[in-house]
Target: Glucosamine-6-phosphate deaminase
Amino acid sequence: LQVEVLADAREIGRRGADVVAGELLAGRLRVLGVATGSSPLQVYESLAARDLPGWDGVEVFALDEYVGLPAGDRASYADVVDREVRAPLGVDPARVHVPDGRADDLDAACDAYEQALVAAGGVDVQVLGIGATGHIGFNEPGSPFSSRTRVVELTPRTVADNARFFASADDVPRRAITQGIATIARARRHVLIARGEGKAEAVRAALEGEVAPDCPASALRTFEDVLVLLDPAAASLLT
Ligand code: F6R
Model:
């Protein structure tokens, strides 16, 4: 696991995009795993600005999706991925995968998502953010490292943190489908991004605390190839 502290969101975006673009240009990016939220936005922007060839052949898999949002809701991760990743990069819409948070049978939708990941050959580069709770995807504290794609309950802290994407905190769904820790672990490379003081304690726990489900992101220390990109505020509690 490699940690780099960079000046700001722009620098982090450029560095994260270097990793993804390097894999794409080397012909090794068949499947890109994407986080939504604020942290990776500049990675996608930097990639879009490079005008790289070959995006139409790349499969994109989201980490997670809220349960129960109507189709076309701007806060749904299906919409977010379409707006912030698919359209700017020029990915084929048929190659974009987001868990189905509107399925009648959510457990079947989770199983289908696991199968789709395997059928695609697994994720080559997974872009990750980290929650203030230490979550990756929506794997909140207590999530077993052996977990797979499943329905989870969001913590009150995560609901509060994500309220900024909704009209009010009451509108934030309390449940989501998320890739499990073991699902995320199968990606060949991981790039985790954290910015701001609000992430400093989660970053400290993930990188220097116990490797245990209390801090789901600590599982990254058991993965093969992980690059952690931090701004100075997110890195401020590291020794
Ligand atoms: C989103 C996801 C979450 C976020 C995390 C950080 O798909 O999987 O783990 O990455 O909540 O969110 P931001 O970057 O908005 O602070």
User: Anything to note?
Assistant: The chain has seven helices and ten strands. The beta strands are 2-5, 31-34, 59-62, 64-66, 96-97, 125-129, 150-153, 175-178, 189-194, 226-230. The two ends are 16 Å apart (CA to CA).
